[in-house]
Design brief:
Helices cover 43% and strands 13% of the residues.
């Protein structure tokens, strides 16, 4: 709200057209409308569009776009040699961020599959959560099937070599509606499985499995089904929904309409 107040004041001083893209939203139950300030507001998911519509605000949705991550065949081979046949969780370690669910699902999956957790510590609380996750891995008897990484500079290789990204987060407060690493995975031909409550679940495609996050049997079923999706299908989803040219066209159209004389 402080930012919105400052922006509204600036607009009164110098009234020029502006666009505000809401990349993330506050927690459920917290009003969004008081934070709006621009002549045009844009959201990045139908889920956010529905939340604003519930407050009486109609806004366009322009889904995000990403560039493919840098990767090499040698880097991917190195990841497979080091980590085996693995699923990837590249998120944060908050209680509802999905990592605990991923561990429970791994225990129920075929023993040939492994899990790589990639998460950099940003705060002291993150370091504490990492220790809790390591303790849970040991308690579940999964130390031989789970690798926990911190900050790395070869994420493109790690993503591209994964069989699937398992992202069962149900709370993305303060985070992008669509986790960009999942979109980058599609660009690399890697499918994903997300929670039914996640904003990304609105994207209906074979390369995106949707499961009830606290029903281990359901997640296992969806993971096993999504593992059979061809890389080409994931890349097709990226090209259709998350490639930069589509984003550029949508924003060009928005700005052209805003620049038209009223």
């Amino acid at each position: 709200p402080r930012t919105a107040f400052a922006a509204r004041f600036a607009a009164r001083v110098r009234p020029i057209p502006s666009v505000h893209t809401l990349c993330s939203l506050p927690a459920e139950g917290v009003a969004i409308r008081p934070s709006l300030f621009a002549q045009r507001s844009v959201v990045v998911s139908p889920w956010a569009q529905r939340r604003l519509a519930a407050e009486g605000v109609e806004v366009p949705c322009i889904e995000p776009a990403v560039l493919p991550l840098s990767t090499t065949a040698e880097g991917q081979a190195r990841c497979r040699e080091t980590y085996g046949d693995y699923l990837l969780f590249a998120g944060d370690l908050r209680p509802q961020g999905g990592v605990w669910r991923a561990l429970n699902v791994l225990k129920a999956l075929d023993a040939s599959l492994r899990l790589v957790i990639a998460c950099r510590d940003k705060t002291e609380a993150d370091r504490g959560r990492r220790q809790q996750v390591l303790a849970q891995i040991e308690a579940l008897g999964l130390t031989h099937r789970v690798d926990v990484l911190g900050q790395i500079d070869w994420l493109g290789d790690l993503v591209a070599a994964a069989r699937l990204q398992l992202f069962l987060a149900t709370d993305l407060t303060g985070k992008m509606d669509y986790p960009l690493v999942l979109l980058e995975g599609f660009a690399a031909g890697v499918p994903s499985v997300v929670a039914a409550q996640a904003p990304l679940a609105d994207v209906q495609h074979d390369a995106l499995g949707v499961a009830s996050p606290d029903d281990v049997a359901d997640v296992v079923r969806v993971v096993e089904q999504t593992l059979g999706v061809a890389s080409a299908d994931a890349r097709a989803l990226y090209q259709a929904r998350f490639a930069p040219p589509r984003l550029a066209r949508a924003y060009r159209s928005l700005y052209d309409a805003l620049a038209e004389p009223s």
